[in-house]
Amino acid sequence: METLKISRTPEVNSKFQSYPNEIRPKLDYLRSLIIETATENESIKTLEETLKWGEPSYLTKKGSTLRIDWKTKTPHQYAMYFKCTSKLVPTFKEVYGDLFSYENDRAILFGLEDEIPVKELKDCIDMALTYHSVKQLPLLGRGLFSG
Fold it and tell me: pLDDT tens, 77-125?
């Protein structure tokens, strides 16, 4: 089994260090779930961690950009962002219903006290990281098999 190659820009660590102490572990956890999900998918060989629009962003060769962030204007929540013109968030809504809180077709929102449904979130992450391989499938392939 090949090892996932992760490339990181130095600015990402600075961004994580800039988050308030109570927020940083939440975003570190999302970051770890993204890396773990990429590692578990044998079709993903590389993961790029960089900043896009000032937010930690994750890219794969056949995926759609995935971003995470916390904003001072909404201090009691943090989010995982997806390309709003993709089928990702509409598919999450269809597959997982109200298990998650959403911001239109662009994000899954988390409250600071929320318990994250790990298995389901990792499935959403996997759909984003492999989006261009599954975008033509009904429910991005989730209706045909589980996970």
Answer: 999 999 998 999 999 999 999 999 999 999 999 999 999 999 999 999 9
Residue 9: is it exposed, middle or buried by C-beta count within 10 angstroms (0-12/13-18/19+)?
Answer: middle
The domain limits of the chain are: 21-134
Rounded CA separation 76/60 (Å):
30
SS3 (DSSP) at 144: coil
For the chain, strand residue ranges (E) read 5-8, 46-52, 55-59, 66-70, 77-82, 101-103, 107-111
* 27 in Cβ contact with 68 (< 8 Å): yes
Considering the domain 21-134 in this protein, what is its CATH number? 3.90.1150.200
Token representation of residue 65? 């950009």
